[in-house]
Amino acid sequence: MKLTLLFTVSFAVYTAKAVPALQNVKNYPRFIEFPGGDGVMHTVDLEAKPDMELLNEINRNPDNNLYLLYTRRNPTSAQTLVINNANSVTSSNFNAQVPTVVIAHGWLGSQYNSINPTIRDAYLGKGDYNVIVLDWRRLALSDYVTAAYGVPAVGRGLGQFLAFLNLVTGAPFSSMHLVGFSLGAHLVGNAGRELGGRVARVTGLDPAGPLWNYNYQRLRDTDGVYVEAIHTDGGTMGLGIGSAVANADFFPNGGDSQPGCLTSLCNHERAWELFAATVTYNHLTGRQCSNTLQISLNTCRGDPLNMGNDILTKTGSGLYRLDTGRRYPF
């Protein structure tokens, strides 16, 4: 009897460590509508049981991701980089002397989603960069709950891949910027954590809210030297987390709804559209706020800080409100 009890407790502890408990907070109902990378809303059961077989596979092989390199020498035709395959890197156009940007899509996404070419082209139009698109569809195409549970393992895999790049090429962590959208925001946070918070920047684009509000594996301010979050759909039933999670948290137009948007999908995706525009123009400036009430009332009068952009040495902290236009470049 004692042996059985000990085994049960030990298994429960192991499971808790292997897969973090994800909570349905922020008053989300059991069934919600959440957008996939295909731009379509899908019904999600937040109380569904995750696919443990897939999660065990992801945990055993956290490096099972696809890394697609774009540079000014190959701006639209990707070169595939493979972890622990030095030749795949040394024979590519990867240049350790220029900054590296990683883009991570969200749920039901892949390399073919609009976020990837939009941010990629903004960077390559600005200067010489290694732009790496992370395609984590093996997990992302599963149900939302399973994908959420597996995000930390995929993030660790990305961190290990970047450590491999550093080892093979000498590319410093101080020249790396990790950018993730929705579930991808928490993913890049875990990648930065895997590297001890040494990457120059981590940017979360409307970090996903459902199952993440009190999840200790979510994006946090120690995941990089400078961590920024852009909140665009953080209302009571919004798709984004809505609360401050980074060094600097920006709330465009109050952070709940965006000009020209009539749906949560539009609000949610506006985060990566705004970010891409700031890489090109660096033109959106927030004012620091003392509290969330000032954000809502649009009465923030503190110090200015530009939202987004490509500056690796960027610093700042606090809450920021700014207003934007309805269409690009906003």
TrEMBL record:
Record-annotated Lipase domain positions:
65-301
Task: Show the CDD domains listed in the entry.
Answer: Pancreat_lipase_like
Any Gene Ontology biological process: lipid catabolic process
**GO cellular component, as recorded:** extracellular space
Signal peptide region: 1-18
- One Pfam family assigned to this protein is Lipase
A single GO molecular function term of this UniProt record: serine hydrolase activity
UniProt keyword Signal, yes or no = yes
Keyword annotations from UniProtKB, A to Z: Signal
Which family does the UniProt entry place this protein in? Belongs to the AB hydrolase superfamily. Lipase family.
Know the name of this protein? (apollo) hypothetical protein
Organism of this sequence: Parnassius apollo (Apollo butterfly)
**Taxonomy-wise, where does this protein's organism fall, top ranks first?**
Eukaryota, Metazoa, Ecdysozoa, Arthropoda, Hexapoda
